[in-house]
Write a structure and sequence with these properties.
single chain; alpha+beta; 4 strands; elongated
Length: 81
């Protein structure tokens, strides 16, 4: 019983350590820099995607065969409803 408990504690410690170590690769203090801000389907498995990396945003065209950068987006321009 004690051996199983020690093995579970070691596995839990390793998972915690590896999760903390892996999060440092994304940015300071584990914050994620890359995110998908908005997605709009166009039909036939095609999408417009606004992807953000830090404070920069990009409009992407996504289809099953490829992903195209359509335009970098300015932070100064406010979106119209």
């Amino acid at each position: 019983m004690g051996l199983i408990g020690a093995a579970l504690a070691a596995a839990g410690g390793w998972l915690l350590w590896s999760r903390q170590r892996g999060s440092r690769r994304w940015g300071a203090r584990g914050e994620r820099l890359l995110s998908v801000a908005e997605t709009r389907p166009l039909g036939n498995r095609q999408y417009l995607v606004v992807a953000a990396y830090g404070k920069r945003r990009f409009l992407l065209g996504v289809c099953p065969a490829r992903i195209d950068l359509l335009s970098p987006l300015d932070d100064d321009a406010s979106p119209s409803p």
